[in-house]
Structures are given as C-alpha cells and as structure tokens.
Specification:
Elements: E1 2-4, H1 7-14, E2 21-25, H2 31-44, E3 47-51, H3 71-81, E4 85-87, H4 91-94, H5 113-116, H6 120-135, E5 139-143, H7 147-159, E6 165-169, H8 189-194, H9 197-210, H10 216-227, E7 235-241, E8 256-264, E9 267-275
Parallel strand pairs: 1-4, 2-3, 2-5, 3-4, 5-6
Antiparallel strand pairs: 7-8, 8-9
Helix pairs in contact: 6-7, 9-10
The structure holds pantoate.
Length: 277
C-alpha cells in the first residue's frame, strides 16, 4: 500500500488502474469504513482511501480540535483491508493560502443536519469535489449512516456532471444496534448504554411501516415515544422525509427516510433507516 500526500503523487499513481474505487474518510476508521474499502476492492479491483479531517465542515463550536485521530492504526487497517493507495494530505495542501471556493447545493443542505450545522454541507461538497478532482475515481463509496451526506453528494455529482458513480454501503452496527461512528468514542459508559435506544426507536418505525402505518406524524410520534421523555430536550429532530429531496412527508405513498439526531451530553449522534414499500 502506497501512502501519498500531494495531488501530483495521487495523479501519477492513479494512472495504473483503469477502474478505481475511492473511499473518502476523516480517519479513526471502524468496521463501517472497512466494509466500504472491501466493497470498493471487490467491485473495482483497486481502491484508494483518503484520510483528511476537513476543517471547513465543522462549525466554530464543534469538535474539530478533539476529533479522534489514529493515523498509524488507520494505515494498518487499510493495508489489512487491501487498499492500494492512501491519500493523506495536510490542510495546507487542500486549502492553500488564498483558497476561497465553496459549493452551495441549496435547499437539501439546509434541512435536517443543515438546520443545526449551517455550513456543514458546503464544507463537505467542496472538499469532496476537490478529492474527486484529485483522485478521479470510477466509483466513490459512502455510508448510509450519513444519509443526508449521501443525498447531497448525489446532487453534487448530478448538478456538476462529475464523472463518478456514487455507491452507498449499508450502515454497520454494534451487536446492540448502535450505528458505528468515530464519535461513539466520546460517549461515557452511561451514554453508551443508553445510545442503542436510537436504533430501537427507528426499528419501531420500520415495524409499524411493515404493519401498514403510512401516516408520517404517527411514525414521528412513535420514534419520540421510544426515545422517551428523558431524551426529548436532547433530540434535534425526528424526520420522516422523502429519501431523495429530504422534504418532510405527510403520508408515505412510496419509501421514506426516517432519521434522527440526539445529543448525549456534548456528543451528537445521528442514525436513520430507509423504509421501502
Ligand atoms: O463522511 C466523512 O467522513 C466526511 O464527511 C467526508 C465525506 C470524508 C468529507 O470530509
């Protein structure tokens, strides 16, 4: 596995593979990331991952400084998963002096996470565009856990005609249902014990949908009931939305994305399930 730090090195190495899968990450890799690397390898034959904690997608009071980092462990995990290349740029490489571009994708970036994190998706869209331009992958792999990010990146690719196919991998969960996330490492033991309620709440919505419930408010109420009154003040949103536009639904005529964001102390966790008819 080759570790590269500049766009020129990536471009020089990239030419070796006609089909290349790309897994962009912010590091502190867990089994969810690794499942994407393995899928990329199986589907493309060769895979490049990037590790870059992107400052522009963090708000001023967010966790950029304490975001967990483990570059050596990450490189060992990527090598074991069969990555061919790793791009590990510094902030100065991605954002040289004078950098000022920002990609705005409109309404879809202002809903859900965007309502709480106003500049987050401009930061994601801008860095992902830069990474796509540097890596020029055939396919890029993202996790369904960040459902809105997947919607935004699909729109980015559509709106700008970027020549890359987006592949979304299933959310990987702990045995008790908690979705894997680098931020789970912030949870205290008590918060960790409480956190699986997120998936229990989402699973209740899925069961109700399977039993025929099509009223979106009934599903939102059910999710909030399972979360319980104790978490109500810490719940940023419970959404039942169109999975393509993220517009809130009244009645589920087709599929839906049920998603939520809940704060456990200073740690904000998100999760979702897709309901398909
Ligand atoms: O999902 C992430 O880890 C990040 O948002 C991404 C896509 C690597 C962009 O910084």
């Amino acid at each position: 596995m080759q570790v590269l730090t500049t766009p020129a090195e990536v471009r020089a190495a990239r030419g070796r593979w006609p089909v290349l899968g790309f897994v962009p990450t912010m590091g502190y890799l867990h089994a969810g990331h690794i499942s994407l690397v393995e899928r990329a390898r199986a589907e493309c034959g060769a895979v490049i991952a990037s590790i870059f904690v992107n400052p522009t997608q963090f708000g001023p009071n967010e966790d950029l400084d304490r975001y967990p980092r483990d570059p050596e462990g990450d490189l060992a995990r990527l090598a074991a998963a069969g990555a061919d290349l790793v791009f590990l740029p510094t902030p100065e490489i991605i954002y040289p002096p004078g950098f000022s571009a920002s990609i705005e994708l409109g309404e879809v970036t202002r809903r859900l996470e965007g309502a709480v994190r106003p500049h987050h998706f401009a930061g994601v869209a801008t860095v992902v565009t830069k990474l796509f331009n540097i890596v020029q992958p055939t396919r890029a792999y993202f996790g369904q856990k960040d459902a809105q990010q997947c919607v935004v990146i699909r729109k980015l690719v559509r709106d700008l005609d970027l020549p890359v196919e987006i592949v979304v991998g299933d959310t990987v969960r702990e045995a008790d249902g908690l979705a894997l996330s680098s931020r789970n490492s912030y949870l205290t033991p008590d918060q960790r014990a409480e956190a699986p309620v997120l998936y229990r709440a989402l699973s209740a919505a899925r069961t109700a949908f399977a039993a025929g419930e099509r009223d979106a408010d009934a599903l939102r109420r059910l999710v909030r009931t399972v979360l319980g009154e104790g978490l109500a003040p810490a719940t940023d949103y419970v959404s039942v939305a169109d999975p393509r536009t993220l517009e809130e639904l009244t009645t589920l005529t087709d599929g839906a994305l049920v998603s939520l964001a809940v704060r456990f102390g200073a740690t904000r966790l998100i999760d979702n399930v897709l309901l398909t008819a």
